[in-house]
Amino acid sequence: MPQISAVIITFNVEAFIERCLESLSGVADEIIVVDSYSTDSTQEICSRHNVRFIAHTFNGYRDQKNYALSLTTYYHVLSLDADEALSEELKKSILAIKENWKYDGYKFNRLNNYCGQWIRHSKWYPDKQLRLFDSKKCKWGGFNIHEKVLMEKGSRVHKVKGNLLHWAYSSSEEHIEKIQKYSTIAANEYYKAGRKAGPFTAVLHYSWSFFSSFILLLGFLDGYKGYLVCSITAYSSYLKYVKLRKLQKQNPER
Fold first, then answer.
1. pLDDT tens column, 157-189
2. Which residues of 6-18 are buried (b: 16+ CB within 10 A; e: fewer)?
3. Is the four-CA dihedral 78, 13, 54, 58 of positive or negative sign?
4. pLDDT by residue (tens digit) across 51-90?
5. Which of 116, 186, 196, 230 is most buried (most C-beta within 10 Å)?
6. Is residue 79 a contact partner of residue 97, using CB atoms and an 8 Å limit?
7. CATH architecture for segment(s) 4-169
């Protein structure tokens, strides 16, 4: 039976980390927490569990997760964020995989909780995530925000039953505050990658994001919370390209 290393990156996540760690009980054979020097009780909570706790300077989500992979004892890896937890059905699926590991990677749906409500439509569900994988055949790639697992060419990935539970935001104010931060990071990543934004790029991205999520993907079925999810997410897309265009204007020689 293959053994699984669970990896989690953290920073001031005392409200979530215990639930995350408890959900790994009986599933993970090793838990590695890479922390960005939290100032709350994150480390204290982790000390109550059988965890390898490593402090490491944060240089971006992608790079921090790749660093965490370098620390694992086992090459079968389950990667979670601190504000996520395995549902009971997903735990059963992963235990079955341990009995008979057939594929290079496994993906499953992520079910997001927004301000106390589970969001079951729009771009937020099914929010497929590849989080269980053979680390010899992949790495974290993409931008240093909204990072993703990149599997080697020819790798086989299988979808399994069960939801990865994610407590996304406890309020719309928190959501708006976070997108201000994340849109700045994304704009800088896009700029470094050579992406361009024209005069109407931001508006077009906002309009399509909201329409596709709220109308085409039935976000309206989640009611008012669904509207908030779709509208604020669309605003996030708008901000990224507004900030990217500002960077272009500040550096016209590029």
1. 999 999 999 999 999 999 999 999 999 999 999
2. bbbbbeebbebbb
3. positive
4. 999 999 999 999 999 999 999 999 999 999 999 999 999 9
5. 230
6. no
7. Alpha-Beta Complex (3.90)
